[in-house]
Every structure is written in structure tokens, then in C-alpha cells.
């Protein structure tokens, strides 16, 4: 009888699903304990270097660092920063290709309290100008291998000091020419003694769901909490080798993966970028975990099948945006036992994570129990697609929660006193920060974070991502801001009105940019020659 009652209770409350997510709850307690003891990200790295000194930490086709070698390099970075009078709270803009030193630079600068801003190296002049205008960096650090290209794009958009960084000359040489003569001893921790885990560690650009790209404040606590969640849920350990070719200027590749390795002792295999022979490198590096985005999986599925597809040592893959239409075939073709599909954004205080080891778990972001939903503060609010805004009762003005299988916007209840449920806001952009907040939603004084993303929960309690709200969309792993594209096109004299939007293409992940225009009355057709000249003059990819 007791067994029957327990089964009935679980069918109503889905407590068994909550038990599966206990590691995520445990992560909050661990992260808060680190916060209480004021342990920063660079402190964790020092602890790992002491625990696994000879263990491989970062590898690339060019070089390899053990945890100890990485820490020594970071110490040199910190002393170099002090030698050029960088101080706690200063902002350094980093423009560098995928390489181990990218991670070591921002961690090393963190040892003296400097905030590193990740800059997308694919940006052209207008995008760079927008980025520098927002963050107002003290200096720029540019990879020497891309210095000529980047300096040409930067031109006069930045007038401060620019430092080029020379990578180590050989795999066995871990001293960059730029750091020659700098001490390898750890800088005195008193230099960063005034910094807490609530302080900004990084600035990472995101388009959010509206407007131009914005710099998100990423705190030490946020990064640590996310890393611990994945570490515990995925059971990452010191024997794992994590393969990533994602851009390090994004949160997933440049922050989440390094924190995972620092916490677990795992090694990171950093590849310059995605290529058609990526599976060869996954095999040759004996990688056990693959980091992906949906577009990668689509390209891999487009490749001609090979008998070697299933020949690998992968035990798991983790990432986001894996299309439902290829999920089953991708997992079976490349023989990946477990896929961890997650949802999240750099600025959001909430994330969803699904452990997929069978066909029943494919194609969604996991099932969530009642306690998980309640304690996370997540709600789906009804959305008025005619008005393109959240639905509100015509008489009371109240917001309303979605029913089963109804599409709505995901919102998260914020608690300023709870570090796990904060929205840190966008740097130097209070107006954009306020647009992400909803007040007095269900109770007077309550405040919710708007994700700007549409979801649906089906009758099996599976959560499905549907689409983004607003004027941004994803294409080839990057956020496209329609506002930014429209702003660039307004300077072409033939166009009177411009509408920019994303359209889906069969068998392609993300959305492609489509532009509809109304010409000025004096124009019957577009002057193609003039448009070509305009395209070559704007120095921006659209």
C-alpha cells in the first residue's frame, strides 16, 4: 500500500525527476560556500595547480600546458599587468584567436583584479566601435597573428594603448615573448583582497533579444555556479578530455569549459575552429567529451557517412541548439552514449539541462518536477502574438501563466538577496537592463527576469525551446542583431524603409538574414552598382 501511495504521489508531484536534479541543488550550496570564503576564479586555478601540477590542463595543435605551467604563465601575465600600471577594476579588451593563452590571459589578469572584456574578432569596424564605446577599456590586447587585420579595422575607434601579444615560440616554451623577464611567482593576494565573488570578473557581449550587442556583467559567482552545476551533473573527472572548437570569446567555450576543467582536473583540447575533419582530431586526441552547438551537429550530419564515425572514445557531448530532427541519428551515428543539451544565456539567472541517454529523452530540454519548477522561480507567461507582447487580462491587467502545450515566454523570479537568482545587468546600459525586468507580476513588489525566449511544456512535462522574441536571431552560432543591420543599411540612399528579419531554411540550424526594403519615390529599382560600392565601403559583414 505504501508503495502504491508513493507511486501515486510521484505521478502527481514528479519527485523522482527532482531527485535526478539534486546535483544542481548541491551546486548552489557549494558555490555559496565558496562565496562565503571569498574564493575567486583565479584562486580555484591556483588550488588546482597545487593539486594536479603535472596534469594536462590546456592542449592545442601548437602547444600544451600542465596545470602548473598554466599557473606560472598566469603569474607572468599578472606581473606584466602590474608593470604597465593596470589596477583592480580596470578593463582590458582581449582580441585573440582560439588558443590556450586566451584563457590564461583572462585568468592571469584576474589575479590582480583586472576585468577582461571578450571581443568578437569577427567584428568589423562598426561593431568594434560599438564595443569599445560601451566598455571603454583601459588597453587592448591583440594576438600578433591577427594584429594587422584588427588594427586596420580598429583604425581610430580606440585611442588608448594597444599591446600585441606574441604566443610562445614552441610547444615546449611556455614563456611568451610579450612576458619575457616577468616573475613566475604568484602575486600577493592582497592585490585582489577587496574583490568579492559578487564583483565583475568578465564582460561578455551578447545581443540579448533586442537592440545592439550589450556587454553582460559576468561575476565570479555566476561563472563558478555554472561550472559546478555542469561538473556535478555530468560527473566530469580528471580522466576526461574535453574537445572544444567553439569561439573562446563566447561564454560556453571561454568560461564554462575552463571552469569545468579547473574544478575537475580534466584537460581541454582547444581547436582553432570547426572544420570538416574535426572527427579525426577528436579521435587522435582521445577526447572523452565533445562541446557542441547545433550548427556543428548539422554540418557533421551533412558529411558523407564513414565507417570511422563511431570510432571514438567519447562518453558524452554537451552543448545547446541540437535540432530535434537530427538528434537521434546524430547520437547513434557518432556513438555518443549521453548528450547533455542545455539552455541558457550569458545574462540569465536560470538554465535548463537535459541528460539524454535514450530515445525518450531526445528532442527537448528535459522533464522537470514540481519542486524543481517551484524553487527555481520559473514561469511561462502567456504571449499575445498579435500584439507581440506578453498577454495581460483586459480588465485586471494581470499576467497569466500558460496551460499545458501553450507557448509562452520563460521568466524567472529574482531575489536580490539570493546570489543564485540575480540579474547583474548590462554594463553601462541601465535602459537595456530595465527592459529585461517585469515588476508586480503575481504579487506586489515581485520582480521577474525576462529571458525573451518562448517555450512550451507538454503533457509529459518536457520543456521545449520554441523561438526567440524580439529582433535578434542565431545564424552559424552567432547572434544577429536586426537593429544593427538596419542601422548600417539606413545610410544607403536608395532605401526609405527597411525591415530585417530571420527566416528558417530547411535542414539548416538557426535563421538566415532576410531584408525587405521600400525604395524612395524617385527610385524604381535598386542601383546594383551603387549597392555594390556601398557594400565594399561599410566594412561590416551583413
TrEMBL record:
Chain residue ranges for the region called Disordered: 165-191
Pfam families: AMP-binding
Keyword terms: ATP-binding, Ligase, Membrane, Nucleotide-binding, Transmembrane, Transmembrane helix
UniProt key word ATP-binding: yes
Keyword Acetylation annotated: no
Gene Ontology molecular function: ATP binding; long-chain fatty acid transmembrane transporter activity; long-chain fatty acid-CoA ligase activity
Transmembrane stretches, start-end: 103-123, 255-274
Domain AMP-dependent synthetase/ligase: 46-354
InterPro entries: AMP-binding_CS (IPR020845), AMP-dep_synth/lig_dom (IPR000873), ANL_N_sf (IPR042099)
GO annotation, cellular component aspect: plasma membrane
GO biological process entries: long-chain fatty acid import into cell
Biased composition (Polar residues): 171-191
Family to which this protein belongs: Belongs to the ATP-dependent AMP-binding enzyme family.
Protein's name according to its UniProt entry: AMP-dependent synthetase/ligase domain-containing protein
Organism: Albugo candida
